[in-house]
Description:
Elements: H1 2-23, H2 31-42, E1 43-44, E2 47-48, H3 50-82, H4 84-97, H5 106-113, H6 117-141, H7 149-153, H8 158-192, H9 201-210, H10 214-242
Antiparallel strand pairs: 1-2
Amino acid sequence: MIKKLLLPPFIVAALWQLAYVMAGHPALPSPLAVLGRLIAASWVDGAPGPLLRHAWASLSRVGIAVALATVAALAVGLPMGRTRAGKAIVRPLVNFFFPLPKIALLPLIIIALGLGEASQIVLVWLVIVFYCTTSLADAAASISPEYYQPLLVQGRSRRELLLHVTLPAVTPELLSAVKTSAATALAVLFMAENQGSRSGLGLAVMNAWTMVDYPGMYAAIVMLGLVGAFLLGAIDLIGRRACPWAPRYR
Length: 250
């Protein structure tokens, strides 16, 4: 297990070192220099350093957006996939907004909410919510009526049908959609954090680049990758706990 965890970073570091030696350019520092900057900027005098604070800012924005998008997807996606009214009224609206590039809405969001946390969270939420809602609706619509028959024969309520059939059936697809869209949301957040933000890894990367601080820039990029890996790993952990029966989480 430890070998599997250490082998990929070791291969990346070896290839990086080779590229550093061959390039001989200050724009590509050595992996050891970047690692040193990563550690130095993450902890200062035993307390979280600026890089770790930037990482927490980015992670908290994505985490809040993911939680809000999951709730919205459940509230909208289930009726959209299981009811005639949802298919006739809600799905056309979702299909209109889903393909729109959400980053194009950033000026409108800034006008409405101003620069700050709210506008960045809303932008990330928009990236996630429509994909999750569509995936959830498709999963709900594909549930075979046969799965409901045993409970219907017993006279179970709609609430029990929802809890014992619908939600277990759609949860794996919902988590898969959240995982996929969260990765895209990090890329969008990177751009949003350069629009008047005072914190975040996107800001840290661009500030280091502007100051020609290449080790600092690469350290922020590595931290961004670590934040993404942590986020996706957390979603997988939730999946293994919430739906252990799904083949993808076994």
